[in-house]
C-alpha cells in the first residue's frame, strides 16, 4: 500500500486567485514554453554543487545539484519556487531573505546564477484546477526552513534513501529543494511517491524523465 506524502500537516487556506481559467495553446505543442509545474534544474560551478553531484551520482558542473518548480502566486505572477540557502535576494512573497522555501522572479535567478540552468518541461500543461491546487500548496508551504540533514540523507549511497523512506514519512516541517518539488507533484497527483524526502535532484529528474513525466531538458544558460 502506497503511503501518501504527509501534506495534511500544512494548513492551506484557499485564496482568491487571478489565474486565468485557461492556458496558452502554444504550451500543448511547444515544450520550450516555461509553464506552471515545470522543473528548473541548476548545475552550480562551486564546491557545494560538486559535492552534491558526487554524492548523488552526477557529473560535477554538468548534472543537477538543485531544482525548483515554476508556479503562480495568488496574484497570478509566474515565479520560481525553490528551497535554498544560497539566494542573495528576498523572497517575492514574504519580502525577506530566508534559508528555506521561497519564490523569486525566474529571470532574476537565471541572470545571477553562476552555473548551468536547465528547463525540464512537464509533459502536459496543468488543468485550471491543478494550477489552483499548485498555487495553494506552494503558497501554503512558503517560508518553511531548509533541511540540510534531510538533503544529506537523500543521497543514494547504498540505497539509504530507500531504506529511510520505509521507516518514516516526510513531514514538511523542514524542506530541501527536491523534496519540495516531489511533494508538490505528488500533491497534484502528477505521480505518487511514498516519501518526498527520498528524492535528491539527480534522482528526481532521472526518474521523471524515465517515466515520461518530463520532456528532454533544454539548457537556458
Helix content: 25-40%
Question: How many helices does DSSP assign?
Answer: 8
Largest sheet: 6 strands, antiparallel
Secondary-structure arrangement, i.e. CATH architecture: Alpha-Beta Complex
Rounded radius of gyration (Å): 16 Å
The CATH topology is given as: endopeptidase fold (from Nostoc punctiforme)
Element-level helix/strand string: HEHEEEHEHHHHHE
**Which range does the strand content fall in?**
5-15%
Strand order of the largest sheet: 4-3-2-1-5-6
Query: SS-based structural class?
Result: alpha+beta
Query: Which superfamily, in CATH terms, is the homologous superfamily?
Result: endopeptidase domain like (from Nostoc punctiforme)
- Regarding quaternary structure, what we see is single chain
Which word captures the global form? globular
**Roughly what is the average pLDDT, rounded to an integer?**
82
pLDDT below 50 for ≥5 consecutive residues: which ranges? 1-27
Integer count of domains: 1
Strand element count: 6
Structural notes for this entry:
The protein is of the alpha+beta class and 221 residues long. Helix content is 31%, strand content 15%. The protein has one domain: endopeptidase domain like (from Nostoc punctiforme) (endopeptidase fold (from Nostoc punctiforme)). It contains 8 helices and 6 strands. The chain has a 6-stranded antiparallel β-sheet, sandwiched between helices. Helix 4 packs antiparallel against helix 7.
Amino acid at each position: 500500500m502506497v503511503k501518501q506524502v504527509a501534506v495534511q500537516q500544512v494548513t492551506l487556506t484557499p485564496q482568491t486567485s487571478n489565474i486565468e481559467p485557461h492556458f496558452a495553446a502554444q504550451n500543448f505543442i511547444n515544450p520550450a514554453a516555461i509553464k506552471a509545474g515545470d522543473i528548473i534544474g541548476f548545475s552550480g560551478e562551486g564546491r557545494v554543487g560538486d559535492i552534491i553531484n558526487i554524492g548523488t551520482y552526477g557529473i560535477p558542473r554538468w548534472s543537477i545539484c538543485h531544482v525548483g518548480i515554476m508556479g503562480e502566486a495568488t496574484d497570478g505572477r509566474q515565479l520560481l519556487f525553490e528551497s535554498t540557502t544560497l539566494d542573495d535576494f528576498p523572497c517575492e512573497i514574504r519580502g525577506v531573505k530566508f534559508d528555506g522555501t521561497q519564490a523569486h522572479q525566474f529571470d532574476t535567478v537565471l541572470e545571477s546564477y553562476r552555473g548551468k540552468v536547465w528547463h525540464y518541461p512537464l509533459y502536459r500543461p496543468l488543468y485550471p484546477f491543478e494550477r489552483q491546487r499548485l498555487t495553494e500548496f506552494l503558497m501554503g508551504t512558503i517560508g518553511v526552513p531548509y533541511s540540510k540533514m534531510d538533503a544529506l540523507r537523500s543521497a543514494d549511497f547504498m540505497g539509504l534513501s530507500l531504506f529511510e523512506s520505509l521507516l518514516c514519512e516526510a513531514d514538511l516541517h523542514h524542506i530541501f529543494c527536491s523534496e519540495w518539488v516531489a511533494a508538490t507533484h505528488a500533491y497534484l497527483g502528477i505521480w505518487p511517491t511514498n516519501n518526498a524526502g527520498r528524492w535528491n535532484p539527480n534522482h528526481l529528474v532521472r526518474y521523471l524523465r524515465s517515466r515520461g513525466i518530463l520532456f528532454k531538458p533544454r539548457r537556458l544558460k
